[in-house]
Amino acid sequence: MRLEELNWMDVETYLKNDNRIMLVTGSCEQHGYLSLLTDIKIPLALADAASQQSGVLVAPPLNFGNSPYFLKYPGTISLRASTFMDVLEDMIRSLYGHGFRRMLVLNGHGGNAAGGTRLVELANALPGLKLGWYEWWRATSVTEVGIRHGLRSYHADWSENFPFTRVSELPEGEKQPPQFKGVLNAEETRQTYGDGVFGGAYQVDDAIMDEVFSAALKDVLFELEF
Description:
globular; alpha/beta; two-stranded antiparallel sheet; 226 residues
């Protein structure tokens, strides 16, 4: 159940029985041969699936995050880290003002990590507020799926290649991760990674992706019980 499917009176009724909501954050950035909104599509799909089982409301996703290293790849739209954290805080404060007290942020983008620190500040500032921060690709349950199949995950590789993130044909085989030292600027990042895939297998059997999704969904349902 998504917020855009309701009117304000529906939300007021929902809050009489439940004060939980899921927020989805990610990015609009290059993902090799996958959708530019891959980092939104994955956590949003998890949120929708979790909502179907739990009845917890899903807020509209924040489609933009901190991606300065990919700005030489057309289509990438990056927020400053400070902007991202401020927008996330404003979203949480708005929902808190309506009576939401348990909010789980499903973050799909590593560049948004600073948002987790802002959550601690908000938890200190807003009485009764409980917050969660879940990043599916970092979860032990998800990494264990890769280990079972002898797979290591990188950016824009097999691990993000779900049927709903594909927008074009992908190469066969694997990509050797490039070697570099230091922090790369946007130009150096494009020179280093070329097609934008950081390494590893481009794609795997969909049955493995089903395992990944199921593992992450189980985590989300657990995180909602707080």
